[in-house]
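Shift notes (night). Ran 50S ribosome-binding GTPase while the centrifuge was going.
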Amino acid sequence: MNAPDPRQLRRLLALGVVLASLALLWLLFGATRSALSLWHELDGLPDFLRYALLALVTVFAGASAWLAWRLLNPRPRKPRPSPPVDRASVEQRLERLQSRQAETAQFEAELQELDRRARSETAYVAVFGEISAGKSSLVRALAPQARDAIDVDVIGGTTRLVSHHEGRLGERALILADVPGTREVGAREREQLARDEALRAHAVIYVAGGDLTRAQDAELRWLRGYGKPLLLVLNKTDQFDTAQREELLAALRRRYADCADRVVAVRAGGSEQFLRILPDGRQEQVTRQAQPEIAPLQQALAGCLAADPAELEQARAAAVLGRLDERLGQAERNLRERESQAIVDRHTRRAIVGALAAVAPGTDLLIQGALATSLIRELAALHDIPLRQIDLDAFLRQAALTLRTTSSVILAIAGNALKAFPGLGTLGGGVLHAVAYGLIFDSLGRAVSQTLLEQHRFDQEQAQAGLQRLLSEQARSRIGYVAKLALQGLREEETGAERPR
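Came back to this:
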């Protein structure tokens, strides 16, 4: 077949352009004629009717333009605030964890500490900030009569890390908490202790040695999110001259007007040097302790603590219960992960025992339907997720297809597992298929469990993707784990301790 002539193609393209231009011009003329005709008809109408029609057209055009703009620039949805956590729900979750033999001593101690502080008439103030910001010096300045830390913290044995000092602010008794500094290298646990203590306090003093970094900004806004009084304190003001200090204070007050109740500048103490002239005319450099300058902070703190004590206690309790809710959620997740793994291990061991008894070398690796169904149903029941039989059947059919296409890979991985355990590799093809079945059920259970944990529903696609990934994965620790289960299954097969159901 001859190729088309390029010149003929260009002529056809030019003709198409001309025809399209004429058609567009014709449409333009038609639109212009229609507009002129409409204008003449409007011009013949009474004034009130003409102006009403023009106003209607204007409103319609404006509404259309606004709608188009909104479609092109959608307004971001504001996240819905989560409802406050109540004490009863926290206690119910604790009871459920206790009924499942989970460790709850820390949570119970937190509630006891919450009640203990609520019964006292003392205001708790946490001094919070990064390391080297001068928190300890500020605590000593606010509570000069407290020589040593007092041991009042019973949460997890943290008295070495969170020290408390008694003080007074006018007629009000205070407990000042000197918490570990944040952003310390290798001290994430101590940083979490500092955050927890800040949530237990009635008010928080956030200490900074200069302008706030991005991390400090995030910490300050995180603290503000709990709705308790929050003071931003610029410490070490002797490092700035007057103009620099005022400029920095003004910038901080503008930036955190909606975040901190007050922004004040202090000098918590420290050392200072001056030149002393001796009687004989000689000069010497003298270092002495500087006097604290904390009057603005004392006034601001007194103003914060002058609020209704019931409101202060309510905000403090809400912060503690909110943090408890987060920790309980993590504890529940960890417990479900452990219980899920126990279910997977039990079914994996049964699959291995069944394969040792029934599978001959060369048999295709088809999934054991009844055992697989039991595995997935138990996992779904553990996570309180309803599971339809139609979804389960469809997933198992797809899983069976995956196993057929990856059977050689599974057998190869199982063979490597046998080589790693002397004694297993000499027992024949039945053991090889048993380890392969173990890998199948371990992968299946892990994939389904991970999907239920992350999605809070049975997502067939994610579970299938997880199954394929785990089947092709040759993680030494997991293969060794399954091989150990195979050894247990072999011993149980020999002794008759367990038979597949």
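The first helix runs from residue 6 to 43. Strands lie at 123-129, 163-169, 172-178, 203-208, 230-234, 262-265, 271-277, 283-289.
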